[in-house]
UniProtKB/TrEMBL annotation:
<keyword id="KW-0805">Transcription regulation</keyword>
<dbReference type="InterPro" id="IPR050204">
    <property type="entry name" value="AraC_XylS_family_regulators"/>
</dbReference>
<dbReference type="InterPro" id="IPR009057">
    <property type="entry name" value="Homeodomain-like_sf"/>
</dbReference>
<protein>
    <submittedName>
        <fullName>AraC family transcriptional regulator</fullName>
    </submittedName>
</protein>
<dbReference type="InterPro" id="IPR018060">
    <property type="entry name" value="HTH_AraC"/>
</dbReference>
<dbReference type="Pfam" id="PF06719">
    <property type="entry name" value="AraC_N"/>
</dbReference>
<dbReference type="InterPro" id="IPR009594">
    <property type="entry name" value="Tscrpt_reg_HTH_AraC_N"/>
</dbReference>
<dbReference type="Pfam" id="PF12833">
    <property type="entry name" value="HTH_18"/>
</dbReference>
<keyword id="KW-0238">DNA-binding</keyword>
<dbReference type="InterPro" id="IPR018062">
    <property type="entry name" value="HTH_AraC-typ_CS"/>
</dbReference>
<feature type="domain" description="HTH araC/xylS-type">
    <location>
        <begin position="208"/>
        <end position="306"/>
    </location>
</feature>
<keyword id="KW-0804">Transcription</keyword>
<dbReference type="InterPro" id="IPR020449">
    <property type="entry name" value="Tscrpt_reg_AraC-type_HTH"/>
</dbReference>
Length: 309
């Protein structure tokens, strides 16, 4: 269940360092192994060109862009989303809504190739994935446009915070956070690959088969015994490797899927909260209401009223 989330840390007012386009203002933080850029646009513009000098994770903070990338259809780029951009890849960007009173703001972390290679090699050597042919790697264009996970957003927020400090150890602290960011990025791409595109991988990836089974039996009793057997793993190994690859446990994944189904069912005007609870796979109404409020910020009943308003 994808969730739109925003960086918790506010970005400081920007210095007016102009790009060649004369459209975007930029603040730059240079640290060992990466460069952190904050771009801010104060007026509407069309097809503004931009290249970054290394592989970059870009994240929308405020406003809206329309991205034009080589070989891909143009797409809206909104807060709570990220785009992975290859080194020297030409971006052409529209800013349809930017103005002084509502600037468009975007974060870009440009990462040195050696930093990426070291992290990927370390993961593949010490923490291999469940399938040997699915090695750790930053995926290509098909999985470049992402909805941020809470884990990715939290790590980005901490990287911004440490980059802006005057701590004498900031490069060391930022280095550890950058490694975590790369792991969170690959986990986020893995979720998109398997959680949202599982049907393409049912015969080649054991976790795709597990995800398919969960989606098909969401209202039933789903046990780790059953799921680990489907994956041909012991319970302990299944639980550990699933969390390593996707950044969440199988139990948390089931909860998020059930809450997503509950939100879908609550859109029906005649569906009661108790009925939705059971149909989404929760067998305890109080537990369902508590979980829903924890993840969505409101009770199921309040969510239903918001839909009807």
């Amino acid at each position: 269940m994808p969730t739109r989330v925003h960086l918790p840390a506010a970005v400081a007012p920007l210095a007016l360092e102009r790009l060649h386009s004369l459209v975007e203002n930029r603040t730059v933080y240079n640290l060992e192994g990466f460069e952190l850029n904050v771009f801010e646009t104060h007026r509407a513009a069309h097809r503004v060109p931009l290249r970054l000098e290394g592989l970059a994770l870009t994240t929308m903070l405020r406003g809206k862009k329309v991205m034009h990338l080589p070989g891909r259809e143009a797409f809206d780029y909104l807060p709570g989303e990220s785009v992975v951009v290859d080194k020297d890849e030409l971006m052409e960007i529209d800013f349809p809504e930017a103005c002084l009173c509502q600037p468009t703001q975007c974060l870009a972390v440009t990462i040195a190739p050696d930093t990426i290679r070291h992290t990927v090699d370390l993961l593949n050597e010490r923490y291999p994935k469940a399938e040997p042919h699915h090695a750790w790697a930053i995926e290509g264009p098909e999985y470049a446009h992402l909805t941020n996970t809470p884990e990715l957003t939290d790590t980005l927020g901490r990287l911004v915070a440490v980059s802006r400090t005057s701590d004498i150890n900031k490069d060391v602290l930022a280095g550890f956070t950058l490694q975590e960011l790369l792991v969170r990025l690959m986990q986020t791409q893995a979720r998109q690959l398997i959680f949202h595109d599982y049907a393409r991988h049912l015969t080649t990836h054991r976790f795709a088969a597990v995800v398919g089974y969960i989606k098909d039996h969401l209202s039933e009793n789903l046990t780790i015994d059953k799921l680990s057997a489907l994956a041909c793993m012991s319970k302990a190994t299944f639980f550990r490797v699933f969390k390593r690859e996707f950044g969440i446990t199988p139990v948390e994944y089931i909860i998020r899927e059930r809450l997503g189904e509950a939100k879908r069912l609550l859109r029906h005007p005649l569906a009661s909260v108790a009925e939705v609870c059971l149909r989404a796979g929760f067998n305890n109404l109080s537990y369902f209401q508590a979980l829903f409020k924890k993840y969505e910020g409101v009770t199921p009943g309040a969510y239903k009223k918001q839909l009807a308003a």
